[in-house]
Design a protein that fits this description.
Blueprint: H1 2-12, H2 22-53, H3 57-103, H4 105-117, H5 123-136, H6 138-147, H7 157-181, H8 187-209, H9 214-238
Helix pairs in contact: 2-3, 2-7, 2-8, 2-9, 3-4, 3-6, 3-7, 4-5, 4-6, 5-6, 7-8, 8-9
């Protein structure tokens, strides 16, 4: 009886729209900001090491371009693997909840009611809300109240991968173009300035995205950038 009722309810559910949720958009932006920051620091690290070890411009350019490509592909593959795992988990949760609704609909309804009770709604009102929602959209309701998931909206690994790849490549271009285009007498100073401006921007964006403190995020990024350049400068000197 319950199985037939659930199947009937599922048929009443509308297909999810293609519009991204806030979480999906935030994940894409996060991947881009992290990719850009990684691209900046990875490329400048190689450029400083190689640039200090040799004055051959062709060698420096080849090393920088090679590292930029490697960094972009590495960030892309890492994001793809990470977000794919998250998507697999979300889909497994959906499958599990489908079975639970099918086998114990009343218990799932009770858990939805508890969700609203815990948020200050009276027991009677919570039961009414749960009953109405479960009659119309059982799976969507359970996923949202129990797992904070939106039915049909999962993190897109390909979108995160491409976002991270292009951001890493774009970030790495700042120090690479600086060390290539600036005249020899100001090459290092120009590259350092380009890196500091770049990590300042990524720090600002990461703070805005995560609702963090802008000054702290920028300060942290700048310090990490300086340390990265300092370490690789001396690595190149030793080599």
């Amino acid at each position: 009886m319950e199985r037939n009722l659930y199947n009937k309810r599922v048929k009443q559910v509308k297909e999810p729209t293609g519009e991204q949720t806030l979480a999906e958009k935030s994940n894409t932006i996060r991947a881009a900001v992290l990719g850009a920051n990684d691209g900046i620091l990875t490329v400048v690290g190689v450029l400083f090491s190689v640039g200090v070890a040799t004055s051959n411009q062709a060698t420096i350019i080849v090393a920088g371009v090679s590292d930029l490509i490697a960094c972009a592909l590495s960030m892309s593959s890492g994001e793809y693997a990470s977000v794919s795992s998250q998507k697999d988990t979300e889909q497994a949760v959906e499958l599990s909840e489908r079975k639970l609704i099918d086998n114990d609909f009343e218990h799932e309804t009770s858990q939805v009611a508890d969700y609203y009770v815990n948020r200050g709604v009276s027991t009677a009102t919570a039961n009414e809300i749960a009953q109405e929602l479960m009659e119309k959209k059982p799976l969507e309701t359970v996923l949202r109240t129990k797992h904070d998931l939106e039915y049909g909206h999962y993190m897109d690994p390909w979108q995160a991968a491409f976002s991270s790849m292009f951001a890493a490549a774009s970030g790495g271009l700042f120090p690479l173009m600086a060390i290539i285009l600036f005249p020899a007498d100001i090459k290092w100073a120009g590259t350092i300035l380009a890196v500091l401006l770049s990590v300042t921007l990524t720090g600002f964006l990461s703070a805005k995205l995560g609702d963090g403190l802008v000054k702290i995020a920028i300060f942290r990024n700048v310090i990490v950038g300086i340390i990265t350049m300092f370490i690789h400068f001396y690595v190149g000197t030793l080599l």
